Amino acid sequence: MNAFVFPGQGAQFPGMGKDLFESSAIAKERFAQANEILGFEITEIMFGEDAEALKQTKVTQPAIFLHSTILSEVMGDRFQPEMVAGHSLGEFSALVAAGVFSFEEGLSLVSERALAMQVACNEAPGTMAAILGLEDEKVESICESTPGVVIPANYNCPGQLVISGAVDAVENACEAFKDAGARRALLLPVGGAFHSPLMEPAKARLAKAIENNTFNAPSCAVYQNVTAKGTLDADEIKSNLVAQLTAPVRWTQSVQQMIADGALHFTEVGPGKVLQGLVKKIDRHIETASGS
């Protein structure tokens, strides 16, 4: 079976999408729609060289969504998913590709999500850190024993887990990880404590936006971060999208479940090759490819 996966925040780079814009009429139309929906010229930021401007949450999330959804369209007959998944933000791209909602609806939801998350970051500053070389259970245990808010946030692959929470708690946990033998415990240059309880203020705004949109049943199973299981239920997809804001991204478990359900080939649809690398670390026998 063919699985198509969509990257999330962190996959951005200056100039992303410019090649699509220059080679596709579909891309030109989508970028024009995006500028209108968002109310600012996202194309100028994406195609430019200002990496810092591209890191703004209100820009990054729509930019990655744009790149991924446009790419899935221009792939044409090469895009034949039998199952889809997205890493965090990438779930929204996956849902558009699976026909759950339109490109326009998806972009509006992504914009609302980004703005809601930015407000939450301003209310409760936080950070994230990548922990390499420890078993998941050890990372979970140290998080539980560290005072303050700090939790496992991204289960990326065996031996690579990202934690999230209050700055002091994350920093203290990093010292404990190093003492426990972690190969690295590296603070990440992010704007907040994503996928942690500190994102709770963003839930109400995103939930309202989601409820104002009609969700169709997907054309194939969608493997969501919160459950790491495939679903065809539109109501379940809605609730999981909201829950995802404060819940861990179970990427390792999602890929393992997709493989157990028959996935033999994974195609990454979006900027970069991060997910291809993670899939290979989860199961080195699986074939991977880029949609670009």
**Which CATH class of the largest domain?**
Alpha Beta
**Which class of secondary structure composition applies to the elements?**
alpha/beta
Radius of gyration: 18 Å
Strands side by side in the biggest sheet? 8-7-2-1-9-10
Spans of at least 5 consecutive residues whose pLDDT stays below 50 are none
Count of folded domains: 2
| CATH arch. level architecture of the largest domain | 3-Layer(aba) Sandwich
The coarse silhouette is globular
SSE sequence, one letter per element: EHHHHHEHHEHEEHEHEEHHEHE
> How much is the average pLDDT?
95
Sketch the major β-sheet.
6 strands, mixed
Fourth-tier CATH superfamily name of the largest domain? Malonyl-Coenzyme A Acyl Carrier Protein, domain 2
Portion of residues in beta strands equals: 15-25%
**Structure annotation, total helices:** 13
What name is given to the CATH topology of the largest domain? Malonyl-Coenzyme A Acyl Carrier Protein, domain 2
- The total count of strands amounts to 10
The percent of residues in helical segments reads: 40-55%
Quote the distance from N terminus to C terminus: 20 Å
Explain what this protein looks like in three dimensions:
The structure is a single chain. The protein has 292 residues and is of the alpha/beta class. The chain folds into two domains: 215 residues, Malonyl-Coenzyme A Acyl Carrier Protein, domain 2, CATH 3.40.366; 61 residues, Malonyl-CoA ACP transacylase, ACP-binding (Alpha-Beta Plaits), CATH 3.30.70.250. 48% of the residues lie in helices and 16% in strands. The chain has 13 helices and ten strands. The protein has a six-stranded mixed β-sheet with strand order 8-7-2-1-9-10, sandwiched between helices. Helix 2 runs antiparallel to helix 5, helix 5 runs parallel beside helix 6 and helix 5 packs antiparallel against helix 7. The longest helix has 21 residues. The two termini are 20 Å apart. The mean pLDDT is 95.
